[in-house]
Design a protein that fits this description.
This protein has 354 residues and is mostly helical. The chain has three domains: 233 residues, Rhopdopsin 7-helix transmembrane proteins (Up-down Bundle); 62 residues; 44 residues, no CATH class. About 3% of the residues have low confidence.
């Protein structure tokens, strides 16, 4: 990830953390984001410092080996805070119940062990393109032991991640309407991060997706503090239903159009080969005309089906029946000052049936 994007992500975490600390009672969540920003920022700085000191311009900067060592592990506490402890403590900074305390303690102990192992394990900056930079305190004689410990810790931390996520489902079951809306924001951001991991894995089969994977990773990392900030500060809290709706529609639309494009191009190319003995770029032009023709009907059909799935018809929703476009109109009226904050909030709750 380019250094500029890393800096922007770190800044996002720091700003959202500061806002939560200063404007919300869930200060622990704010401090967690501030700590994560410090962790990510220092790790990136230490790594770049070590590269400059040890490879680019050797001897020009002091403490190059020490900074290389910090670069190996200082991002791990930040990752643990966001991936393991944020789901446990979101949105009020407290565990869902006392039965989650053993999970929190075990997660903390596991993270400490993982950090200590990373501090001492033999490793290099090979992933960053600098294999000559090695862990200055790495115990090379115990490389096999560290490899085995790593193989044990990776699935353990993955299980802890899943268990921490289950805490959110516990809150959904116990919480009220507003807390469910807050969790929707967090879940949406988590889905973006998950999609970025899937796309990143796909780059092994399709390297041309690397740019899109990096962009989605940046969006995912930035979406987490943004979504948590909206949820905790309660600014436009109920807009998440619109965002989820629109996201589902356009993700499905993209998938359908991609399938149509592939099938129609193949069909037209076969026709040209059968008629002239060779393919033609005209097949792509004709396919684009087909896509332009079917775009609106497909989009409207998907929109109707997503609307029904997200908001099933019931006696309560019939009383306040409206389309997604009506919700957008309410938002526009609010932005223009026609509706006050209280009026907008009341009408939106009526529309959503909560």
């Amino acid at each position: 990830m380019p250094d500029l994007w890393v800096a922007l992500v770190v800044l996002t975490y720091a700003l959202i953390g500061a806002l939560i600390v200063s404007h919300s009672r869930a200060r622990l969540i704010g401090w967690m984001f501030c700590g994560a920003a410090l962790s990510f920022g220092f790790s990136s700085f230490a790594g770049q410092y070590a590269i400059q000191s040890l490879v680019v311009a050797p001897g020009t900067l002091p403490f190059g080996q020490a900074m290389a060592w910090f670069g190996f592990w200082t991002d791990m506490p930040g990752i643990a805070v966001i991936a393991l402890f944020l789901p446990l403590l979101f949105p009020d900074g407290r565990l869902p119940s006392t039965r989650w305390k053993p999970v929190a303690y075990f997660a903390a102990a596991s993270v400490v062990v993982a950090v200590v192992i990373t501090m001492l394990a033999p490793a290099t900056y090979a992933d960053a393109g600098y294999p000559s930079i090695r862990n200055p305190v790495g115990l090379d004689g115990y490389a096999a032991l560290f490899d085995r410990l790593g193989l044990l810790l990776q699935p353990l931390l993955l299980v802890l991640l899943v268990v921490s996520t289950v805490a959110l489902f516990d809150r959904v079951r116990r919480g009220g309407a507003e807390e469910r809306q807050q969790i929707k924001w967090f879940a949406f951001a988590g889905a973006v991060v998950l999609a970025s991991f899937v796309l990143q894995a796909g780059t092994r089969l399709a390297p041309e997706l690397a740019g899109a994977a990096d962009l989605l990773a940046i969006l995912g990392l930035s979406a987490i503090p943004a979504a948590v900030g909206v949820a905790i500060l309660r600014y436009r809290l109920y807009d998440i239903d619109l965002i989820i709706n629109r996201t589902l529609v356009y993700v499905l639309l993209t998938a359908v159009l991609a399938g149509v494009y592939t099938a129609v191009v193949a069909l037209f190319q076969r026709m040209f080969v059968a008629l002239s003995g060779q393919g033609s770029d005209l097949a792509i032009v004709m396919t684009l005309f087909v896509l332009a023709t079917v775009f609106t009907p497909i989009k409207n059909t998907l929109q109707e089906r997503v609307d029904r799935r997200i908001k099933p018809t019931s006696a309560r929703t019939i009383a306040h029946a409206t389309s997604i476009d009506d919700l957008l109109l309410l938002s526009e009226l609010h932005d223009r000052g026609v509706l006050t904050d209280d009026e907008f909030s009341t009408k939106k709750k009526q529309v959503l049936g909560i």
